[in-house]
Specification:
With about 210 residues, the chain is of the alpha/beta class. It has 8 helices and 7 strands. It has a 7-stranded mixed beta sheet, sandwiched between helices. GO terms for molecular function: O-methyltransferase activity; S-adenosylmethionine-dependent methyltransferase activity.
């Protein structure tokens, strides 16, 4: 099964648009320098995020969980000409390198990189977000969703990553972290404020459109 999965991933990557040189660099250096490089969105999911962002054509984007900035750069591709992307991460050790990626991109003047607790930073932004990508502390996903839902206009898109949790959501005896994700998915499935669908991309991407 692992060989089939790897072959399928390779096939998907070869049938979508290529990464640009900066994204290839971020990808390569993440795998060289990070202890958990699998947290990177990667080529295929990055192209999905880029396409979704272009379809929304957001003026304002919020990303919760920057990591090494790969998804940030992909999401920024859909920004309107005067658009701004706010991205928040708590790990200041990566700040200099990730800021360097942003500064070297065509979106240098559009990305606002915040270091700190997202729960404290979001209220200070005073923005309305057309697109939100939640990819941080999984235990707080529902909190983040409830925090930003009123800052998303009708037609806005909220994306939440890792909602299939390597298939563990189907376990008969899930661990505590998996239970939290199962609970999140169940609550979102019943939420009448949004239209929703889980896309089985990598570790599962919940797409929710504000009504």
């Amino acid at each position: 099964m692992e060989i089939v999965a790897n072959d399928l991933e390779s096939y998907l990557e070869h049938t979508t648009d290529e990464e640009n040189s900066l994204l290839k660099r971020v990808n390569r250096e993440t795998y060289l320098k990070e202890t958990m490089p699998h947290m990177l969105s990667g080529h295929y999911q990055g192209r999905v995020l880029s396409l979704l962002s272009k379809l929304v054509a957001p003026k304002r984007i919020l990303e919760i969980g920057t990591f090494t900035g790969y998804a940030t750069l992909c999401l920024a591709e859909g920004l309107q000409q005067d658009g701004i992307l706010h991205t928040i991460d708590i790990n200041e050790e990566q700040q200099e390198r990730v800021q360097g990626y942003f500064d070297g991109s065509e979106f240098a003047d559009k990305i606002r990189y915040h270091i700190g607790d997202a729960a404290e930073i979001i209220p200070t932004l005073n923005e309305t977000f057309d697109l939100v990508f939640i990819d941080a502390d999984k235990k707080r996903n529902l909190y983040y969703f409830e925090t930003i839902i009123n800052q998303v206009p009708s037609g806005g898109l909220i994306l939440i990553d890792n909602v299939l949790w390597k298939g563990k959501v189907l376990d008969s005896k899930p661990d505590n972290q998996t239970k939290q994700i199962i609970d999140l998915n169940a609550r979102l499935a019943q939420d009448k404020r949004v239209e929703k669908v889980i896309l089985p991309i990598r570790d599962g991407l919940f797409a929710l459109r504000k009504k």
